Amino acid sequence: MALPAEGYETTGKVTGRQRSPGAMIGAALVSIAVFAAIVLSGQLGEFLLAGLQVVPFAILALLAYVGVRHQVATVFALLWLALVLLGLAGASALFAFAALLAQSGALTSAMGGNALGGDLLPPGGGSYLVAVSLWSLAGLLVAGLVLVPPVRRGLARLLPIDPRSTVHAIALSVVTGATIIGFGQLAAAGGVPPLLEMVEAMPEVAEGAGGNELLAMVYGFAWTLPAGLMAVGFPVVRTLGQTLQRLGLVRPTGRQVIGAIGLAVLMVGGAWLLDAGISRVWQALGWPRTDTAAFERLLGGAISPLGAVVIGVTAGVGEEMVVRGALQPRLGILLSNLFFASLHAFQYGFDGVLSVFV
After folding, report:
1. Which of 228, 349, 200, 223 is nearest to 278 (CA)?
2. Pairwise CA distance, residues 47 & 54, whole Å
3. Phi, psi (rounded to 5 degrees) for 120
4. Residue range 262-275: mean pLDDT, rounded
5. Per-residue pLDDT tens digits for 14-24
6. pLDDT digits (tens, 9 = 90+) for 126-142
């Protein structure tokens, strides 16, 4: 049986209870929180800054849903979509540039208060930045292309989207754009992720982070939960109960719990075999593999029993809620998995990304 809000997603009309004023107030509050993060320091500032990873997408979802009732909100949603995509492209370029500065030693000199001298970029750095920019441009173009109605009607034959829905159009645009930008920067780097490049060139930075990694994960999780609710229309077109059901956050039966435990055991063994197989293939073909030592330094304090619990909860609940609960039912398993894998392309090589995808 379709929920009241489901009628909206398939027809483009709102049939559930409206909370547009509250949604606009919520968007204003999270915007204020982002601004406050710039001027605040300490743990509160760290918490608010962690919201920068998810707040822009929450605002985008709110504007998209409010736009169903108020056309002017759709205009703002499209403008905000453009800003989000440009922000992703800019972040990709900044990661690439920072990795190059770390390789050349310029970043270490700057952080030490020394004057920069000589070449800022290592050999081939300029070509790398151009390649990253071209991939980002491709992502922006595809993100704009899927907003065209005839293109969405064609994609609707492959994806479970409603080509008439503005909400689906915006979701499709940001997901395809982010996926291409994420994979593109890794392809431009020859399969070597920028974060690990920085860790290898500046190991003292990762070592000095201490236990901040765990706090960053917890802070991100605290922002991801409400953002995940907003991504499916809360509180604009769905009540909290309808939202939880839409995301699949319902009480499992005893049979489901037992089945999940058994499946988890099988998946642990399967994941080990998969990683071993991918590693052998990459080694045989001479492709660059994810630097395990650098990745462990990147995680720092998260490599511990407590870290395993934190990662399990934050990733197992937060990320899965957004990707499996919100995106997969509307964009299909292939595109949502590609998007999920692309989010890891800044710290994993293609071998690790393939493992995440599968």
Report:
1. 349
2. 12
3. -75, -30
4. 80
5. 444 444 444 44
6. 899 999 999 999 999 99
Task: Write out pLDDT tens, residues 173-193.
Answer: 999 999 999 999 999 999 889
Rounded CA-CA distance 321/242 in Å is 15
Task: Check if the beta carbon of residue 235 is closer than 8 Å to that of residue 65.
Answer: no
pLDDT tens digits, residue range 292-333? 878 877 776 667 777 778 887 887 788 888 898 899 999 999
Concatenating the DSSP letter of every residue in 66-124 gives HTTT-HHHHHHHHHHHHHHHHHHHHHHHHHHHHHHHHHHTHHHHHHTTPPP-S-SS-TT
| Cα separation, 172 vs 134, whole angstroms | 21
Helix (H, G, I), strand (E, B) or coil at 233: coil
DSSP labels, 174-194 = HHHHHHHHHHHHHHHTTT--H
DSSP run (H or E) holding 261: helix 254-285
One-letter amino acid of 64 = A
Long-range contacts of 351-358 (CB under 8 A, 24+ apart): 351/278, 351/279, 351/282, 351/287, 351/289, 351/290, 352/290, 353/183, 353/186, 354/278, 355/271, 355/274, 355/275, 355/278, 358/274
Whether 235 and 23 have beta carbons less than 8 Å apart is answered as yes
Confidence of residue 199 (pLDDT cuts 50, 70, 90): confident
12, 68 Cβ separation under 8 angstroms: yes
Closest by Cα among 37, 58, 38, 35 to 48 = 37
Rounded Cα gap, residues 17 and 241, in angstroms:
13
Residue type, position 226, single letter:
P
What sign results for the dihedral spanned by CA atoms 258, 262, 268, 270? negative
